[in-house]
Specification:
By secondary structure, the protein is α/β, with parallel strands linked by helices. The protein has 14 helices and 12 strands. Helix 3 packs across helix 4.
Length: 441
C-alpha cells in the first residue's frame, strides 16, 4: 500500500506558490487532484465539500519565527474554516524547518478539538476564548522541511518520505491502509456483481432482481421496502473482498501491546460506543415488520411478562431499567414462518457510569447463572448499559401483538453476531441433559 493509493485529492495551503509548483506537478502525475489555497491573495477560505486525504500546509505563513504561536493559531483557524464535520479522514503534512514545533502543533490541535469541553487547567496559555473549533482532527501529522526539497530542486521522493513517516504510526497507517482496502474492495464487489449479468439490454431489471433476492436472503422478509436490507446484504459481499485485500497487510504489526493514556472512565465510554457499533442496529427498524433480533420494550399488556430484576444493588440508589424482549426465532423457522415468533424476556439497565467499583462487583455477582445472557457495557441512546436476557422466560406471542407498539414497542435490533451468540447460548441452555438418579439415605 502506497500513499498515492490512499490520496486521490490533496489540498495545499501556502503563500509561496512558486515553491510548491513541483509538488503540484508530482501529485498530478500520480493522477491526484490538487487544489492550492494562498491565504495572502485568495479570498477567505471556503468550506470544502469533498474530502481531501492529504492537506499540505506551510506552518510559518508569517516568516517571523518569534511569532510561532500566532502562526499555529492561524493554521488551526484555516483548517477549522475549510473542514466540515463530515469531512472524513485526512493526514496533515506541515512544512517547517523547526521540527520541535510539531509538539506545539499537537497541543494546539488538542485544545482546538476539545475547545467546547470543560477543563481544569490553571495554565493561562491553556485557555484561549478565541480558539477555533477543529471538528475533525487529522489522523496523522507529518512535519517536513520544504527547503530540503527546494535545495535539490525536486519533490520526487516526497510521497515516499511521507509514507515512511506514517508507517511509524500504527494508528495512522492502520486507518490509511484500511481506507484504501475498503475502496479497493468496494470497486471489486460492484464489478463482480454487475458482471454476472451478460444481457445488458435488461441489465437494470436483472441487477434489481439480484439485489432484491440478496435482501430477502439477508432478513428472511419478503415484504415492505427492502432497500436498506439490500445495502446490508451487499455489505456482507464487501466483507469477503475486504478480507482478501487486507490479509497480506504487514502494517501495523502491533508487536507490543499499546498502553495508551485513557482513564478508566474514558475506557468505559470507548467500550460502550464500540460495543454498540458492533452489536446494535438502529437502521431500517420498522414496527410492523417482525425480524429475528428485534428488541422490544414491554408496554401495556406485555408488562405482565416482565421478570424480577436480579441486578438490583440496593433500595436506596435505584437506577433506570427497561423491561425488554428479543425476537429469537431461528432464521430457518422464521423464513418459512411455520411457527409463532419466539421471544426471550429480559431488561436493560442504565447503570455503568454511576457505579463505583464495589457496586459493579456486586452487580456482576448478582447476574450469574447459566440461564442468564449478560452483555456488559454497551452504549444505548448515549448511556452505558447492561443488557440481560433470562432463558427461562420464553414466550410465543402472536404477530399482531408484536406489531403493536402499545404492547411491544420495537427499540433496535441485535446485529447478526450478537443475535447468533444469544441464540447459540439459548440453544445450549435449552438442550441441557440431566439425570435424576436414586439416592437412598
Amino acid at each position: 500500500m502506497h500513499i498515492q493509493d490512499f490520496a486521490d485529492r490533496v489540498f495545499i495551503i501556502d503563500n509561496k506558490e512558486d515553491e510548491i509548483e513541483d509538488l503540484k506537478r508530482l501529485c498530478e502525475e500520480q493522477d491526484i487532484d490538487v487544489t492550492v489555497f494562498n491565504p495572502e491573495t485568495d479570498d477567505e477560505p471556503y468550506t470544502l465539500k469533498k474530502n481531501r486525504q492529504l492537506i499540505f500546509a506551510d506552518l510559518m505563513l508569517d516568516e517571523d519565527v518569534s511569532k510561532y504561536k500566532s502562526n499555529l493559531s492561524r493554521l488551526i483557524k484555516l483548517l477549522s474554516d475549510i473542514i466540515p464535520v463530515d469531512f472524513g479522514p485526512y493526514g496533515l503534512v506541515v512544512w517547517t524547518k523547526h521540527s520541535e514545533l510539531e509538539d506545539e502543533l499537537k497541543k494546539i490541535i488538542n485544545k482546538s478539538v476539545n475547545v467546547n469541553q470543560s477543563h481544569t487547567s490553571t495554565d493561562e496559555d491553556e485557555i484561549d476564548e478565541d480558539m477555533p473549533h477543529l471538528q475533525v482532527p487529522p489522523m496523522f501529522i507529518v512535519t517536513m522541511n520544504k527547503n530540503e526539497y527546494i535545495a535539490k530542486n525536486s519533490y520526487d521522493t516526497v510521497l515516499i518520505d511521507i509514507e515512511n513517516v506514517v508507517k511509524k504510526s500504527n494508528a495512522g497507517f492502520f486507518f490509511m491502509s484500511w481506507t484504501t482496502s475498503v475502496n479497493a474492495a468496494r470497486n471489486k464487489s460492484i464489478v463482480d456483481v454487475y458482471s454476472i449479468c451478460k444481457d445488458y439490454e435488461h441489465y437494470d431489471e436483472n441487477i434489481s432482481y439480484l439485489l432484491y433476492q440478496l435482501a430477502i436472503n439477508h432478513t428472511g422478509v419478503n415484504t415492505g421496502n427492502l432497500t436498506v436490507d439490500s445495502y446490508k446484504a451487499f455489505d456482507e459481499l464487501l466483507y469477503a473482498d475486504l478480507f482478501v485485500q487486507q490479509k497480506d497487510e504487514l502494517n501495523p504489526h502491533f508487536k507490543e501491546e499499546p498502553t495508551g493514556t485513557l482513564t478508566e472512565e474514558d475506557k468505559k465510554k470507548a467500550c460502550g460506543k464500540l460495543n454498540a457499533k458492533m452489536f446494535i442496529d438502529n437502521d431500517a427498524i420498522v414496527q410492523n415488520v417482525i425480524v429475528p433480533g428485534n428488541i422490544y420494550k414491554l408496554k401495556g399488556d406485555a408488562t405482565r411478562l416482565k421478570i424480577i430484576n436480579k441486578a438490583k444493588i440496593n433500595k436506596e440508589e435505584p437506577y433506570t431499567s427497561h423491561d425488554v424482549a428479543i425476537e429469537l426465532t431461528p432464521p430457518c423457522d422464521f423464513s418459512n414462518k411455520k411457527i409463532n415468533s419466539r421471544i426471550i424476556v429480559g431488561y436493560i439497565i442504565e447503570c455503568v457510569d454511576t457505579l463505583i467499583a464495589k457496586d459493579i462487583k456486586k452487580l456482576d455477582g448478582n447476574l450469574k447463572g447459566d440461564y442468564l445472557y449478560v452483555l456488559k457495557n454497551i452504549m444505548i441512546e448515549g448511556k452505558n448499559c447492561y443488557m440481560v436476557f433470562d432463558f427461562r422466560h420464553l414466550y410465543t406471542p402472536n404477530d399482531e401483538d408484536l406489531k403493536n407498539p402499545a404492547i411491544f414497542e420495537v427499540w433496535f435490533r441485535a446485529k447478526p453476531k450478537l443475535f447468533a451468540d444469544i441464540l447459540q447460548k439459548f440453544s445450549s441452555h435449552a438442550s441441557r441433559l440431566g439425570l435424576s438418579d436414586i439416592k437412598l439415605s
